[in-house]
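Q: Structure for this?
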Amino acid sequence: DTAVSQTPKYLVTQMGNDKSIKCEQNLGHDTMYWYKQDSKKFLKIMFSYNNKELIINETVPNRFSPKSPDKAHLNLHINSLELGDSAVYFCASSQGSKGGPSKNIQYFGAGTRLSVL
Amino acid sequence: AQSVTQLDSQVPVFEEAPVELRCNYSSSVSVYLFWYVQYPNQGLQLLLKYLSGSTLVESINGFEAEFNKSQTSFHLRKPSVHISDTAEYFCATLNTGGFKTIFGAGTRLFVKA
């Protein structure tokens, strides 16, 4: 039973399209994250939600919009896809964003490889 | 502001040889340090962590890291690597508020037969 699961695993689409990636965690965690990993493996945080509240919103184009319907789910919608959006997107969760460093240990999904043609 | 620097982007090594992956941190407050590992086509997973107490921390698969305050380092070591250790390794810390993990650029460990 996968702890952090994201769908789809692969996403190939044309420039200008709109797409969504879904993430679910069954760990009972309060905090969820979206990261972008480029071709050089550099990992950049995009967003974080704690109990459905946005707590981290890094400098990301407003074409990217996260949505958290409940604390177990964090979806990522991307409008008007561009070539530079091609990357692997990782969802992660942690026990909480506060309450000590051990609660920040990240549990990652397997990633969604997005290719924009 | 907290940050981590991984000094090597790639480390090739032969099987059964020892390895050290270097990480230096920058912090003016309490230091919490982590190593995460990313196997091919997978997400990251925690390898080991230093939060407090003993400066030498170990993982279940033979890796260890030592928190060195005077050298601001948290290098990862293994005395004898296996082919299966081939992966990307990320050093990480927490930001000042303790709610955001800051990752280094990663070091690719490539173990050759």
